[in-house]
Amino acid sequence: MPPAEHFALPPNWDWWILGYFFFGGLAGGSYAIGTLLRLVGTAADQRAARTAFITSFLALLPCPIFLIADLGQPLRFINMLFDASNGGFAFKPWSPMSLGSWALLGFGLFSFVSFVGAVAESGWHAADPIARIFRGTVGAVWNIIGTALGLFVCAYTGVLLAVSNQPVWSDGWPLGGLFLASSLTGAAALLLLLLRRRRDVDAGTAVRLELADRNFAILEALLLVVFLVTVGLAGTIGKMAGVWLLLWLVVILGLAAPFAFSRLDGARRWAPVTAPLLALLSVLALRALVIFSAQS
Amino acid sequence: MGFFTDTSICIGCKACEVACKEWNELEGNKPELLLDSFDNTGQLDAQNWRHVEFIEQIPDNNGVVMTPTPIAGGQAWLMMSDVCKHCQNASCLEVCPTNAIVRTEFDSVLIQQDVCNGCRDCISACPYGVIGFNEKTGTAHKCTLCYDRLQNGMQPACAKACPTESIKFGYLDDLQVAADKRLAALQTAGYKKAQLYGRDATVYGGLNAFFLLMDKPEVYKLPNAQNATLPSRNNFAGYAGGFVTAVVGLVAGVLAFRSQRMNEKSDATR
């Protein structure tokens, strides 16, 4: 296969977009883990599930701000949803940015309601009807739909990059899956970090989360290899070399951390903080690597 | 309607660049020496909607052609006035989330300045590096095919100004006939590498601004037919990959949470 040729100019998607990809991924990933804990976890996992839903919404809050700040005409952010020239909705399913805008709006609604439910369940208004609703079938259905939207938000950011004519991005169709797996890894790490000091959280929950984190890291590592193969076949892998090797190191360290820290005796003492922190840095580094190297 | 740019008779005078800037009131470039032949414009962007490329294929002192290949066995200095191609299948129009990019009644591709919100997805998608972001307006800009002039029965400023008629404007059918004749004449004269780019549907469904080139498209920084692909080619694979990953990820999560729960149950029964 001859190398791909790219003559496109970079869109200069920089720090705001990196911030959005990072926090959006954590929001979607946290919501999915919250749903898993709620639906297949034990009764002792429910506290962690509530933390996951609260974390999801808090991580989502800066996302629209980042996206709007990145626009050249921030006040026209509404044009993403409403067609300013023809009237009606601006909905183009074949444009990831259009689809993503709607998905973000929908996920925002689901995340917000789940956040309210989690807060209500947390004891402020334990007898509140809202809390009861969220513990029942309606809550389960709500969580499942919210998870689908949340995971879509995690993945479409990668598809958005792939659906372009930029080097690296358009050569790597697995970016959507890679970003999704990375979001799950990061969210599991974030929850481990947040639950570390909470005495009311069951120790078994942390063990289960650590195992899930390792499973997600394996999935991410596999997709990273597939991504590199596709970019390598296109002949643009060189764009991700050179100074970017430092970020590669962070990505690899973060992926290895959940495994290494659980096996090395000397490192076990540092594991509860260091492994999740490295994993989170890895999530950020992966996105920075993909975003910036292609545009350099 | 569209352009036929015959690069074999371009003399690199940049009258097209000047006419474009003047009519469209585009900002002047800051004087800069790019040390790239006679090119001080650099590239198409928000303030340069026409750009004359200078491609030197001149033998060095030993008579060896350094880049890339000579035409008709001799030496060459290729010039091409580059512009938005107003593609039939336009990448920018495909990805634009706000419908700010539209196809006009003249079949050109236009960015509506009052709708564009400066997301820059079109810049990411355009395979020709045509669209630029204007920091002052906060929007994306490119050639409009002189939409305002067309509405008033005039031809685009660049075509009007071109002294050698390298840039021809008119109905596509007429331009294609003229291009075919010119290509045949050049090939008869020994210019075997002469070729039409964007004349037919092999490149983005056909270009409304197509070219007669004197060498391969890549020499002019134009993707060849094999590389002229729409961004949407990655839609299905991207989403399918995301969906499969989501399913595998959720299964991996369920396994993690269920397996530990099973362990706890078995520990409790012992």
User: Remind me, CATH topology of chain A?
Assistant: Formate dehydrogenase/DMSO reductase fold
Radius of gyration of chain A: 20 Å
Question: Number of DSSP strands of chain B?
Answer: 10
Mean pLDDT metric of chain A: 91
User: Measured on Cα atoms, how large is the radius of gyration of chain B?
Assistant: 25 Å
Enumerate the spans of chain A where pLDDT stays under 50 for 5 or more consecutive residues: none
Overall 3D geometry of chain B? Answer: globular
Number of helical segments with 4 or more residues of chain A: 10
Residues in helices of chain A, as a percent range: over 70%
- Which structural class do you get from the secondary structure elements of chain A? mainly alpha
Percent helix among the residues of chain B?
A: 25-40%
Summed over residues and divided by their number, the pLDDT of chain B gives a mean of: 90
List keywords for this structure.
heterodimer; A: 10 helices; B: 270 residues; alpha+beta; Alpha-Beta Plaits; 2 domains; two-stranded antiparallel sheet; 7 helices; 17% strand
Describe it for me?
- The complex is a heterodimer of chains A (296) and B (270).
- Chain A has 296 residues and is mainly alpha-helical.
- Chain A has one domain (15-295): Formate dehydrogenase/DMSO reductase domain (Formate dehydrogenase/DMSO reductase fold), CATH 1.20.1630.10.
- Chain A has 10 helices and no strands.
- Chain A starts with 14 loop residues before the first helix and ends with a helix.
- Chain B is of the alpha+beta class and 270 residues long.
- Chain B folds into 2 domains: 2-229, Alpha-Beta Plaits; 233-269.
- Helices cover 30% and strands 17% of the residues of chain B.
- In chain B, strands 8-1-10-9 form a 4-stranded mixed sheet. Chain B has a two-stranded antiparallel sheet with strand order 2-3. Chain B has a two-stranded antiparallel ribbon with strand order 4-5.
- The radius of gyration of chain B is 25 Å and the shape is globular.
- Chain B starts with a strand and ends with a helix.
- The chains are: A mainly alpha (296), B alpha+beta (270).
- Chains A and B meet through helix 1, helix 4, helix 6, helix 7 and helix 8 of A and helix 2, helix 3, strand 6 and helix 7 of B.
